[in-house]
Amino acid sequence: MSEPSLKQVARSLDVSPDTLRRWSREGIVPLRDGRWTPAAVAQAWIVLRLRARGHSLEELREAAHSGRLAYGYMEELFPPKPETLSLKEAARESGLEAALIRRIWSSAGFSGKTLEEGISADDVQLLRYMAAVLSAGFPLVAFLQLVRVYGQALAQIADAEVKLFHLFVHEPLIRDGVDGLQIAEEMEGLATELLPLAAPIMEHVHQRWLQHFIEQDVVGEVRMKGFAETTELFLASAEEP
């Protein structure tokens, strides 16, 4: 995708081009070779939201220069917002009813508002996987509980990833007085190497724990069966004259 022009960015943020020029000139939204990359646009969105919350340009300038707004530049690690489908279209593509998709979304902890904003192709593929689970015969009530567990656990994981990255990577760079744009580039480089490793690590850890709890369940069943047989023998012997 081509990078947007200054006017296009201004229109998408509903601010004037002069405002964006000022943010760039004062280093609040540093640009790479004057280009409005996806990361720079994400930074501008952050600045806009902070301005709406009452933060002054002086506060934002200091935060940008110290590198505290560097996370905005990590947007480049994620794919640009794709074309989306409506809820009705997603229901047709996935084979799930719209009402059930809403229940699944809520169980996962996602905001229902995101469904109205549009459902991406990746989201539709996720819904297809879920439809396959239900088609295989897994009970809906159990499935929704499982989705809720997935949502809560993965939200905690993502929260921990961001907080630990901030604590052990971002903050040390700030304390060392590294330039804001350099901080963003260093964080982006490290995250680029680490993010692809998260999925296989979590998958392996999940398999190990799944195997553990399957074994525990089997052991529990054997113990219960043995206990039941012992109880039956005891009761039968107690009834004998």
TL;DR of this structure?
The protein has 241 residues and is mainly α.
Quick tags:
2 strands, 2 domains, 241 residues, two-stranded antiparallel ribbon, 10 helices, mainly alpha, Multidrug-efflux Transporter Regulator, Chain: A, Domain 2
What's the topology here?
Elements: H1 6-13, H2 17-25, H3 38-52, H4 57-66, E1 84-85, H5 87-94, H6 98-108, H7 113-117, E2 119-120, H8 121-135, H9 140-175, H10 180-239
Antiparallel strand pairs: 1-2
Question: How would you characterize this protein structure?
Answer:
The protein has 241 residues and is mostly helical. The protein folds into two domains: 1-81 and 178-241, Orthogonal Bundle (Multidrug-efflux Transporter Regulator, Chain: A, Domain 2), CATH 1.10.1660; 85-164, no CATH class. It is built from ten helices and two strands, in the order ααααβαααβααα. It has helices spanning 6-13, 17-25, 38-52, 57-66, 87-94, 98-108, 113-117, 121-135, 140-175, 180-239; strands spanning 84-85, 119-120. A two-stranded antiparallel sheet has the order 1-2. Helix 6 (98-108) packs across helix 9 (140-175). The longest helix has 60 residues, at 180-239. The protein is globular, with a radius of gyration of 26 Å. The chain starts with 5 loop residues before the first helix and ends with a helix.
